[in-house]
UniProtKB/TrEMBL annotation:
GO molecular function: 2-oxo-4-hydroxy-4-carboxy-5-ureidoimidazoline decarboxylase activity
Pfam families, per the entry: OHCU_decarbox
Protein name, as recorded: 2-oxo-4-hydroxy-4-carboxy-5-ureidoimidazoline decarboxylase
This protein's record includes keyword Acetylation: no
N-terminal signal peptide: none
Amino acid sequence: MTLTGLARLNEADAREARALLLTCAAVPRWAEEIVQRRPYADVETALVAARAAAEPWSEEEVDAALARHPRIGERPQGADADAAHSRREQAAVDGTDPEVARRLREGNAAYEARFGHVFLVRAAGRSAAEILAALEERLTHDPATERRIAAEQLREIAVLRLEKELA
């Protein structure tokens, strides 16, 4: 029997539940904390626990989570859950528009040169224009401010992914 929704988190063995959570964010301590707090009465309680476990993530945890994210505007390859999440989240980014593609390539390169990691933004629900505006604005930040914002975006993405998994 395949578990779905909240039962997928509550009733799966610890290994399977951890694997599910790691597709939302590659942060083992976060995943373990959520697994240990099971069972959850409802999805919202699970999401509250996920938010709490992510406050804060260490620098190493942020780096690990960032390393699993593709660049905005590049289509993730593969059939794994990480790639599926990224494809769904970036659906509004039109890779067929050469101007958008160029600006994203250039912006991603400038961002990585400045901050040393991929530009990360919660892309779900945002248009390509909104994402480009966020990228250009965030290039003006100092490294400490940008690191804090990137960590916030990671947490938002992780919780949104978990919400999709539990729906």
